[in-house]
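Q&A log
Question type: sequence-to-structure
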Amino acid sequence: MSAGFFTSMLTVVRKELLDITRDRRTLALAVLMSPLLVPLMMLGMISLGESRVKTQLESELELPVIGAEHAPNLVGFLASQRIRVVEPPADVAAAIASQQVDVALEIGASFDADWRAGRPAPVVVISDASRRNAEVPVQRVRSALRAYGDQVGALRLVARGIDPSITRPLGVGNRNLASEEASRGMILSMILPYMLILGSFLGGAYLILDATAGERERQSLEPLLATPAPRGAIVSGKMVAACLLGLLSLLLTLLALKASAQTGEAASSLDVSFQAMLRMLLVLLPMLFIGTALLSLLAASAKSMKEAQSHMTWLMLLPMVPAFVLMVNPIKNELWQFAVPFLAQNQMLLKVIRAEAIDAQTWAVYLGAGFGLAALLWLGAVARYRQEKLAVSA
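Response status: OK
Response body:
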């Protein structure tokens, strides 16, 4: 490429950046939306979730029990576990369905007879497994029942002169090989990658849509294309300006994460070292270029600004795909995954969050595939700009 090409490109970059600075409201939305919303949404959701779980674990649980009179000892044990037995409603199923009750317990009428005969006494936990807000209360009840059963079983063996440990032929321990950062990062493993990928993917959307579809609709694109500047330099200048704006927003987002992650207990789940932030930035750079190039191609092919903006709906869904796939079907890392858009970014960000080492081969495949796709999309946008009918508004 000649010096004139780069001179023309830099001229377009300055022109586009100057244009967007004149609209301060749009500039503020483009640059500050992600840095403000991502930390607030992420840490807000985590804090809310942790607060809810902590409250449910530490507070006294009211448990409606059907047939409580059949097992007074069990009722007393539940009370020692901060589970207070209360009278059940007339229709337990309806109360759970209407979310008036999280969990209930039904003690069978034969409980006393089976208990005295040494047979398993019937106890039924009633809950709605589709309600996530009831998970903690249900788990508390099940844990209490399991502890009571283990305690009584051990006492029965002792009464018969048998060592209770004879029923436990294995002493199973647990050695967690996950790093401290990985354990803390589990909460963020599904939230943070999507937010960062989406922010980088659409970071230059405001500028590139206005600089292409917007100028075409305002009929200000034709005079620019009529200049001696090469079409490739013009589209490259617009893309560079959008990437610079997206890069600024991305840097502010990472700095906001670093600042917010140093306050509050929930934020301790994120590695906020400068090294981790730099690795995240390197991971997200290819996605910034891919998103900007794709938007340039789509905006250049749109007949109006409204049509160009309509693409944002499905583009915002693309980063969700790997998150949903990994949620229902977790997979082990393989080298080919780091060449697949969105999945590669998700896997790389997970490695950074978990403070895992990333070898040179993985970096090479990831960066090569990412920047290679961005280059192909850039060529597509340049080819579209070289079409004479581009400047014609429908």
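Response note: The beta strands are 61-66, 83-86, 103-107, 123-127.
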